[in-house]
Amino acid sequence: MTFNAFFSEILQRKGPAYGIGLERMQALLKRWENPEKNIKTIHVAGTNGKGSLCYLCSSVLQAAGYKTGLFISPHLSSVCERISINGQHISRAMLLRLCQEVLSYEEQNGPKMNFFEILTLAAFLYFSRKKVDFLVLETGLGGRKDPTNVCAACMVLVGGIGLDHCQVLGNTLSAIAQEKAGIIKDQTPVFATNLPPEALAVLQTRANKCHAPFFYEKDARPFSLEKIDWKKGFLLLRKNKALWRLGLLGENQAENASVVYRAMRFLAVPDSLIKKGFAQAKAPARFEMFYRQGKLFIIDGAHNPQAAQGLVDFLKKSPFCQKANLVCGFMQDKDFGQMLRIWAPHFKEIFVAQLGTERSAETELVRKVMPASAKAFYFSSPVRALDEAQKTAEVVVVSGSFYLAGALRTRMGARKD
Length: 417
Description:
Number of domains: 2
Shape: globular
Strand order of the largest sheet: 4-3-2-5-1-6-7-8
CATH class of the largest domain: Alpha Beta
Strand content: 15-25%
Distance between the termini: 19 Å
CATH superfamily of the largest domain: Mur-like, catalytic domain
CATH topology of the largest domain: UDP-N-acetylmuramoyl-L-alanine:D-glutamate ligase
Number of strands: 17
Helix content: 25-40%
Number of helices: 15
Radius of gyration: 21 Å
């Protein structure tokens, strides 16, 4: 079976009909002598910012000379992006072979693995066999029941916590935090970003129960934002009298850098190598800037109100706030009405794209919740929306979904596997 045919088939393995759960995953891993226990794993959860935390950790560990595995989701243009070592994505042939190996152990008459479980098991096999020094492991959804939670983490990082995936994780910040806190294990150090009080209380309670050292970013933030270079796309952070370059843009990246700094110092990585890793860090679709044919395109995967507000707050610091057009598209289970209310006052025109997946929100649904003050247009595809948006503005922001980001990012010149 070809790579594309195989992954088209296993992508259909979603919903309540699929999923074997953590106990069966742990039983399966025993067949391979528990590869997940042979890897020093940094486990990362959070509603927003967890991807940036992962990319920063990975960049620093590579700068320190460690062979570093990275497992992230979702992918933008190729499923191979989800599994990489030192920035090199797994090959299509290797990923196909590993996934087929995983499926060969599936119980013939038992429950069937879902797509994310298959990829998670394949990733553990890959990283173990490649003998990585560290694995930076991003949760898929929540944490407590997430397939990645079979790992034996050496530390836990928690990004921002907000209301998202409420139909699965709960409708309150404390309920969602309870799911994230589920990745905290006995005596495993925890490093957390600035959190709402009710979420912070849940994490601290779990950490105390597990006798896990708890480091909270707000207690002693080592970095403050000094300058944003809008031309070259990086931040300058101040640490005492020194300036550090950070290769990521975004409203909360100074916070994220502070968390990763403390985690890396815990691992005895020296300042000089953390500084090098920060400067080299890149995070696709996190306020990612592309200059093309005299215009600026910004790709950002914000897909919930908290992230939408962060995008606006950062844009307000820029020289092109109120001058940009927005191309957006959404998944139907997202609070896109609230996102549009946040965004509408800050963009000249809004171009809504139908994403073309079964989970995407129909443009007519988006039209119903579009603020009356917005000058909005609706299109059947992301490409058409982008083509029209760039006709009336020098700056175009693409946001609302990682699926939208993936659909348009390669048109900006980004690499595609």
